[in-house]
């Protein structure tokens, strides 16, 4: 059965982790995989998480099964963060949330659930989108289509082109939107643009599926949820995949959530029984540790405040680095206008380099980024920014 199997190439993002570790150059710079890094290039455990883990160590009484929906305290707490405590979808019990193994788990469970609702489902994804969206959704069996999203050079959203492509999305179609901090391009929808897309969804009847993987790392916890909250208010149905990988730093704990918003409470209740049934047939139930920790943090005022403060510091650092990089690239004489990087949000931006230039940066300078020239802004610090800017200037000249 396995005799004919040939090895696959490394994953375009995760493969960079091993390549970076194997590189002996002391000046190497890791701008590859999307993990937050501090000034020392570490990805520390957040203080609120450490404290909650200590408390949980003493409080946890059993490791017995938890069930497909996961940790109730997590589901309630994260739903409040996503939609806002006073959102009408919560008051009307139209929104239900389950714990999933990361945002990836939420995307896949969401796709499987969609195929329970309709025999054939077309999901429209932005061009470009996070490469893993394709297998996560596509391998479930949905059809994928793309809508234009990003204008290289200006770094802006191709909004008119996006809107005209989405005119073709109607009843039975699903449109995947990045809630904030677009991965890979960093160009986010403005509030008026969210309003226009919501109007279009209302008119044409497509279902938005929002991937909210970076809440709190763009403009702020509330601001980053603007699109989700607006759509949950105005539209009868919505799916939201959220992740605690970046904003709680729980990457390897695989902690995320899937929320289903329906027109009425009974429909939402019914939908979640199908979601739970999908989960039971895929992995039975999610790992609970990350959910327990986030549930504890969100249920404790002091712990939550500590998390909000630390997350705010991470966000400010990323936004400052964006400005610093633009300034340093100009000083180093890099060819091109990079000012758009400071207008974007979240962990990622494209440098707009060719694959050959990206390879040169890797081979000659030990600077690692995805082949598309997506960089993880958080991998920059005051010690490596000059080296980075000089190297980029050299390969773009
Ligand atoms: C990224 O985009 O780098 C992260 O979301 C990590 C991943 O799984 O690709």
In the CATH scheme, the class of the largest domain would be: Alpha Beta
Count of folded domains: 2
The proportion of residues forming helix, as a percent range, comes to 40-55%
The CATH topology of the largest domain, please? Aspartate Aminotransferase, domain 2
What structural category do the secondary elements indicate? Answer: alpha/beta
At the fourth level of CATH, the homologous superfamily of the largest domain is Type I PLP-dependent aspartate aminotransferase-like (Major domain)
> Secondary-structure element sequence?
HEHHHEHEHEEEHEHEHEEHHHHEHEEH
N-to-C terminal Cα separation, in Å?
A: 51 Å
Overview of this structure, please?
The chain has 397 residues and is α/β, with parallel strands linked by helices. It folds into two domains: 12-44 and 315-396, Aspartate Aminotransferase, domain 1 (Alpha-Beta Complex), CATH 3.90.1150; 65-299, Aspartate Aminotransferase, domain 2 (3-Layer(aba) Sandwich). It has helices at 15-22, 47-59, 72-83, 88-91, 102-117, 133-138, 159-166, 191-204, 226-234, 265-282, 289-298, 301-332, 340-343, 355-365, 385-396; strands at residues 29-30, 95-100, 122-127, 143-148, 150-151, 156-157, 173-178, 207-212, 238-243, 256-261, 348-350, 367-368, 374-376. The strands form four sheets. The protein has a seven-stranded mixed β-sheet with strand order 2-10-9-8-7-3-4, with helices on both faces. A two-stranded parallel sheet has the order 1-12. A two-stranded antiparallel sheet has the order 5-6. β3, α6 (133-138) and β4 (143-148) form a beta-alpha-beta unit. α3 crosses α11 (289-298). The protein starts with 14 loop residues before the first helix and ends with a helix. (2S)-2-hydroxybutanedioic acid (LMR) binds next to loops.
């Amino acid at each position: 059965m396995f005799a004919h199997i040939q090895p696959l190439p490394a994953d375009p993002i995760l493969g960079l982790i091993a390549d970076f570790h194997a590189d002996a150059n002391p000046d190497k710079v890791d701008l590859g995989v999307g993990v937050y890094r501090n000034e020392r290039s570490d990805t520390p455990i957040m203080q609120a998480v450490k404290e909650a883990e200590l408390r949980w160590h003493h409080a946890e009484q059993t490791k017995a099964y938890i069930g497909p929906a996961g940790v109730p305290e997590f589901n309630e707490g994260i739903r409040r963060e996503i939609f806002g405590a006073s959102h009408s979808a919560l008051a009307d019990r139209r929104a239900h949330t389950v714990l999933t193994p990361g945002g990836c788990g939420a995307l896949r469970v969401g796709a499987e659930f969609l195929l329970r609702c309709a025999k054939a489902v077309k999901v429209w994804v932005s061009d470009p989108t996070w490469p893993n969206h394709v297998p996560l959704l596509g391998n479930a069996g949905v059809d994928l289509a793309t809508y234009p999203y990003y204008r290289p050079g200006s770094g802006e959203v191709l909004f008119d082109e996006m809107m005209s492509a989405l005119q073709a999305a109607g009843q039975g179609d699903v449109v995947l939107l990045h809630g904030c901090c677009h991965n890979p391009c960093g160009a986010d929808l403005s509030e008026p643009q969210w309003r226009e897309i919501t109007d279009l969804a209302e008119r044409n009847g497509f279902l938005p599926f929002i991937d909210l993987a970076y809440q709190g790392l763009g403009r702020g916890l509330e601001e980053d949820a603007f699109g989700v909250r607006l759509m949950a208010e105005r539209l009868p149905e919505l799916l939201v995949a959220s992740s605690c990988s970046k904003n709680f730093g729980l990457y390897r704990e695989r902690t995320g959530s899937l929320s289903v918003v329906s027109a009425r409470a009974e429909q939402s209740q019914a939908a979640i029984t199908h979601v739970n049934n999908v989960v039971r047939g895929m992995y039975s139930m999610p790992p609970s540790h990350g959910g327990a920790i986030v549930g504890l943090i969100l249920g404790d005022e002091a712990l939550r405040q500590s998390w909000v403060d630390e997350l705010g510091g991470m966000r400010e650092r990323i936004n400052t680095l964006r400005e610093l990089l633009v300034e340093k690239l100009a000083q180093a004489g890099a060819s091109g206008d990079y000012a758009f990087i400071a207008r974007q949000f979240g962990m990622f931006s494209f440098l707009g380099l060719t694959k050959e230039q990206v390879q040169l940066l890797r081979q000659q300078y030990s600077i690692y980024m995805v082949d598309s020239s997506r960089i993880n802004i958080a991998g920059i610090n005051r010690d490596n920014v000059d080296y980075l800017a000089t190297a980029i200037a050299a390969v773009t000249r």
